Amino acid sequence: xxxxxxxxxxxxxxxxxxxxxxxxxxxxxxxxxxxxxxxxxxxxxxxxxxxxxxxxxxxxxxxxxxxxxxxxxxxxxxxxxxxxxxxxxxxxxxxxxxxxxxxxxxxxxxxxxxxxxxxxxxxxxxxxxxxxxxxxxxxxxxxxxxxxxxxxxxxxxxxxxxxxxxxxxxxxxxxxxxxxxxxxxxxxxxxxxxxxxxxxxxxxxxxxxxxxxxxxxxxxxxxxxxxxxxxxxxxxxxxxxxxxxxxxxxxxxxxxxxxxxxxxxxxxxxxxxxxxxxxxxxxxxxxxxxxxxxxxxxxxxxxxxxxxxxxxxxxxxxxxxxxxxxxxxxxxxxxxxxxxxxxxxxxxxxxxxxxxxxxxxxxxxxxxxxxxxxxxxxxxxxxxxxxxxxxxxxxxxxxxxxxxxxxxxxxxxxxxxxxxxxxxxxxxxxxxxxxxxxxxxxxxxxxxxxxxxxxxx
Length: 457
What we know:
3 domains; FAD/NAD(P)-binding domain; single chain; protoporphyrinogen ix oxidase, domain 3; Polyamine Oxidase, Chain A, domain 2; 5-stranded parallel sheet; 457 residues; alpha/beta; 7-stranded mixed sheet; 20 strands
């Protein structure tokens, strides 16, 4: 008898997992509640502007990305970011300062004081923390690198990646590689040197060394290609209402067009957000819902702006800029979208993607966000020395944006492993397990695939 796998969620993790399973000869069905695949990968083309409202790019941290591109015949769509995008800016005292990328630039930068630079040199001599995994990223960085480095490097970086609060994010769960450098090697500088050898052997790249990629028609190209390959094995507009035990299998009940349907599966892989998974997994475990619902997803608004290039006095020579919380602005940072990738704006125009809210300031939002948008645009135009009015504006509000791997997250991770052990054939995935980036999700799709294969033996 053929073994059946049901995947709940048609985001990039679920679709990539389905791809590996299908490629290996397994029967797989993907159930998705929305009318489109892709999850947070949402791309629109309006008036010559190409807008990614979710992930704007990925980092080629794993060979799996190229394998997917080859499998899906996306070679001509696959593009790398402009080298101009390698330059990153941090806002300090209302001035954009380039983030130093080498020792020479670090020694001359005005972003950090002489005292902060000397403090960084002490890092190899700092011992391990006694707090272990109960450290925030703020505590970890302040101890190892000093307060100024936290304020003007890590704080804005955390806002750019997680839209998060470094005082609350767990260093072990949110930045496991950073935590591992201290645990294995005793320090960040020593660990970075030795860790590079491990990555070389595995074929993986660190995020700071990995090439940035996207697609000619935006990030949604990847999930759409996976959907096309999987065809009618993807059930859209279908909401899973329960997963229950059925002898040695599982029964999945889903609702489509006000009609309930039941499926049987040997393995069920959930890749939807944790707060959605809690609604249909509670039948299997009385405590799983509290763990899943305890994961915080802050609200984030993505604001996309278009201008005539001649009205912008700030040189467009980088990836964009991030804003430390000390600068007290109403947004987290801005990507210079049309610098990073070609064809994101019409000829002679420039496109920008701004991020508002997150765990740093979730209280900003109201029922009518038009005033907030106007205030953010004014701040942005002042910082960028823009003399003309924007000619294009479009926004998208994510009520539940990025899962926060806050302190105590390890307790959830431990319980998730216990839950899977007690419910063989149920596998938890998605960006609240194993990382939030596109590269992380693709790497995790292979992990889910291998877990499923093990269960199907």
